[in-house]
Amino acid sequence: MKKPNIFIHMIFGFLIKIIALFKGQTSIEKCKIKGPAVVLSNHTSFYDFIYTSAALYPRRVTYLAASKMFYEPLTGFFLRLARAVPKSLMQADPAATIKAFRMLEKGGIVSIFPEGQISPMNRTLTPAYSIAKFLKKANVDVYIVKHMGAGLVNPPWSKYSFKGKIETIKKLIINKTALKDMSLDEIYQKLKDELFYSASIDNLKKKYKYQIKPIMNLENVIYQCPSCLYEGLTSHKNQLICPSCKHTLAYDQYGLLNGEGL
After folding, report:
1. Which of the residues 126, 149, 151, 158 has an alpha carbon 20 to 30 A from that of 23?
2. Are strands 141-148 and 166-174 parallel, antiparallel or unpaired?
3. Are 86 and 65 in contact (CB under 8 A)?
4. CB-count burial class (<10 Å; 0-12, 13-18, 19+) for 41
5. Which of 256, 238, 65 is nearest to 151 (CA)?
6. What's this model's pTM, rounded to 2 decimal places?
7. 189 DSSP 8-state letter
8. Is 78 helix (H, G, I), strand (E, B) or coil?
9. From CA 149, how far away is CA 164, in angstroms rounded?
10. With the CA atoms of 121, 150, 79 and 5 taken in that order, what torsion angle do they form, in degrees rounded to the nearest 10?
11. Degrees, nearest 5: CA angle 226-230-233
């Protein structure tokens, strides 16, 4: 198990950093990360690997990525180039776990998205309890790189980018010494609390504005009318419309539907 090639990493990592800046990413809390370490990130968009890589640059990181992504021509090429580790979704993967431990033994940094999938609602999903067991056995410093607003700029249900602000926090949440004395329940609760993020709750306070674009495909996520309970909403421009009672939900510049979170 090898770290990402340093020359390729420096070149592509720099380009990723530039892309993230143009996307609107800013780091509002920083810290230095020294391996061996595990970095945990929330997952609300298909671009999270870009935002996480940009936040960690110039440090070389080994990602645990969904094995299905390695079969996609372009994505798979870059994942193999980055020497990412393929991992089965929604189930234990001993082979991926062993590779991650080997990288940590070499002083590397391993990046994991513990939710295991992208949240379509811009709200952190419940991670598997096994991540606490992994961290306990790894016995290294644990950091988070949490992105706020990534799912509003790049909603997973849309092919469009809704230009706006992405704020990233990078910090140590459990050091190696403290990890030894923590129970699995304490570790699990700590990472759940630190990773939690809800775009609607957050932006109801911050009121950051995002570019409004057509919201086609959101009807596949929110398909039931809140008024008459009819299932099968349709989308038109920035609105979801009920064919039965004509109730309308408008998606606004704050990423809210009729002023409320998704």
Report:
1. 126
2. antiparallel
3. yes
4. buried
5. 256
6. 0.91
7. H
8. helix
9. 8
10. -150
11. 80
